[in-house]
Design goal:
The protein is an all-alpha fold. Helix content is 81%, strand content 0%. The longest helix is centred in the first third of the chain and has 33 residues. It has one domain. Helix 3 runs antiparallel to helix 7 and helix 4 packs across helix 6.
């Protein structure tokens, strides 16, 4: 039971760091600026729901995807770890990750409201390459049904937190000084970087065992 708690805590910190709900609040508020509050809530809910479905699908069918494309777990651990390292490195240096934030073209307000929830919010801000890689790496490390349920359950909690941050973003940000969000973003970057290094170490270790 203690082992599951430790695993769940690690998964929570990993998802929280890569999703960065606090850091994404200004992005959400910028995208929905000028839209009525009820519609903003619908956009927030649709985006986190879609992100949850995407990550849950990869968590459950990850092994099938591996087999279909001939991908080994060590390869994904190393590749995913390097991918997440890039995200963490950019956040650690106070930069917005290109894999985690939309480009200027994706921010244009002439997009339909429905499109905003799907892209860029759900993909790639919430369920981007880093989030999917994190989920599949956690599931790959502990492939039992219980651990898959823990990963999906923890991600559901993160999605709920993200939804609340989106809906109450204006009130939450009013309590923060300008520099606080930057400090939190850099702290999340440090955590992501450490997790990514651990993933690469595990991938190299498993690769050595696999090809020995």
């Amino acid at each position: 039971m203690y082992g599951i708690f430790i695993f769940a805590s690690t998964v929570f910190m990993g998802f929280f760091a890569i999703m960065n709900p606090i850091g994404n609040m200004p992005i959400f508020l910028g995208l929905v600026e000028g839209i009525e509050k009820p519609e903003q809530k619908k956009i927030a809910w649709k985006s986190v729901s879609l992100a949850f479905l995407i990550v849950a699908a990869f968590s459950i069918f990850g092994s099938v995807i591996f087999k279909a494309f001939g991908i080994t777990l060590p390869a994904f651990q190393i590749g995913g770890g390097l991918l997440i390292f890039i995200v963490g490195y950019q956040l650690l240096h106070g930069k917005e990750s290109s894999m985690h934030h939309p480009s200027e073209g994706e921010n244009e307000k002439d997009n339909a409201v429905e499109d905003i929830a799907i892209s860029p919010l759900a993909i790639p801000i919430l369920a981007g390459p880093g989030t999917i890689s994190t989920a599949m790496n956690f599931v790959g490390e502990e492939s039992s049904l219980l651990h898959i349920v823990v990963v999906i359950g923890v991600f559901a909690v993160i999605c709920l937190i993200t939804y609340l941050c989106f809906v109450f973003g204006e009130k939450i940000l009013s309590y923060f000084k300008k520099g606080v969000v930057k400090v939190i973003t850099r702290l999340m970057g440090l955590i992501i970087t450490i997790i990514s290094v651990q993933m690469v170490i595990a991938g190299v270790h498993n690769a050595l065992k696999l090809y020995r």
